[in-house]
Amino acid sequence: MPKTILVTGAGSGFGEGASIGLAHAGHEVIATAQIAPQVSALRDKACALGLDNLRAEKLDLLDAYDVRRALAWDIDVLFNNAGIGEGGPVSEVPVDLVRRSFETNVFAPLALTQGFVRSWVDAGRGGKIVFTSSVSGLFTPPGYAPYAATAHALEAIAEAMRQELRPFGIKVQTINPGAYLTGFNETTADTAFRWLDDGRNFTSRASMRETYNSLLATPQGRLDPCEVVDAMVEIVPTDEGRFRNVVPQSCEDMLRRHQTEAWDACI
């Protein structure tokens, strides 16, 4: 059945693609973006595609007035997709950057989610929450720990929520994409080079760039994002399915091996 779905972080990448795909599938979509230019661009795209059921709105998760307004919307599914990337060697990354990442990627979506959960519980109705996590929520590649730490935190929150909210008829899922070419991973890698200084840091800029190239400058690091968008369009509105959804299958296989091998890892 058609659902009313709120998508955060719909100004680009997976969020934009999923919003358009969900609207094409017949759902009522409230596609939200952080800044007004993204909202305007999304409205123009929806109009050009004839998607009267895609409504673009501004929602900066760190703006209390935006959040208050959003919590008044009547929705069936909250798709927490918004997030920022922060990279660099975790032993040297400025802690204020890590703190900001947690504010945007963890605390803000948690607050939004709590607001909708409370409204559903008070109304005696079910609902659904979907978090865009990452394969980095289940393992941590070098250079990505500042971002991966926030994804790990989302995994913990989602796993507990799934159990806590089941008695209220509220379902919880995660979607864990691999290294898809949306620009997010590349932009995350670039963040380190705005503070990494060969004159001060013991991690050299050259070695950090080599690390990122080894992860991203390969076919496995530049996958077609349409695969994840298609999966999101299928997973987000459904009432059944797996709690954790890793895309592609090769990444799920890698994570299973990694988690098994972790028990025997040596220092």
From TrEMBL:
GO molecular function per UniProt: oxidoreductase activity
Xref: SUPFAM superfamilies: NAD(P)-binding Rossmann-fold domains
InterPro entries: NAD(P)-bd_dom_sf, SDR_fam
Pfam families membership: adh_short
Keywords: Oxidoreductase
Signal peptide as annotated in the record: none
Similarity comment: family membership: Belongs to the short-chain dehydrogenases/reductases (SDR) family.
NCBIfam families per the UniProt record, alphabetical: PRK09291.1
Protein name as it appears in the record: Short-chain dehydrogenase
Organism: Tistlia consotensis USBA 355
